[in-house]
């Protein structure tokens, strides 16, 4: 309900590899300049106030949650989480369970996975270095 049908058609027809959030701001600036030239905005001070309000509105919209796109997770945290998740999964997934033994309910065999622990120590050691 913020755009007319013609504006929406023009916005959807715009080819841009980037997000088009800036287009309405550019349209506003162009329309405000046109209104000043046509005398609907009486002087440059009023035009400046209009543009300041637009700038403040854009600033307020950015505070609503648009900045989360720019927050990055440090790669070291991603790698650390991936390593620990991998090894927790390995501790469960590499347990030996022989179905021929007839375990009731097929519980996990809670033996010590020696090679998985060695792999864990090497990877975490490399991670800490």
TrEMBL record:
One of its GO terms (molecular function) is chloride channel activity. Keywords: Cell membrane, Chloride, Chloride channel, Ion channel, Ion transport, Membrane, Transmembrane, Transmembrane helix, Transport. The chain crosses the membrane at residues 69-96, 108-127. Coiled coil: none annotated. The keyword S-adenosyl-L-methionine does not apply. It catalyses: chloride(in) = chloride(out). It is a multi-pass membrane protein. Its main location: membrane. It is found in: Cell membrane; Membrane. One of its GO terms (cellular component) is chloride channel complex. InterPro entries: Bestrophin, Bestrophin-like. Belongs to the anion channel-forming bestrophin (TC 1.A.46) family. Calcium-sensitive chloride channel subfamily. Forms chloride channels. This is Bestrophin homolog. It comes from Spizaetus tyrannus. The gene is Best2.
């Amino acid at each position: 309900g913020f755009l007319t049908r013609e504006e929406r058609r023009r916005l959807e027809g715009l080819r841009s590899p980037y997000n088009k959030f800036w287009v309405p701001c550019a349209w506003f600036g162009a329309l405000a300049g046109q209104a000043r030239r046509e005398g609907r905005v009486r002087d440059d001070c009023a035009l400046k106030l209009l543009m300041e309000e637009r700038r403040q509105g854009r600033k307020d919209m950015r505070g609503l949650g648009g900045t989360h796109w720019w927050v990055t997770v440090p790669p070291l945290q991603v790698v650390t989480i991936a390593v620990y998740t991998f090894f927790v999964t390995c501790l469960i997934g590499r347990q030996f369970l022989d179905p021929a033994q007839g375990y009731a309910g097929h519980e996990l065999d809670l033996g010590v996975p020696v090679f998985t622990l060695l792999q864990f120590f090497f990877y975490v050691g490399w991670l800490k270095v």
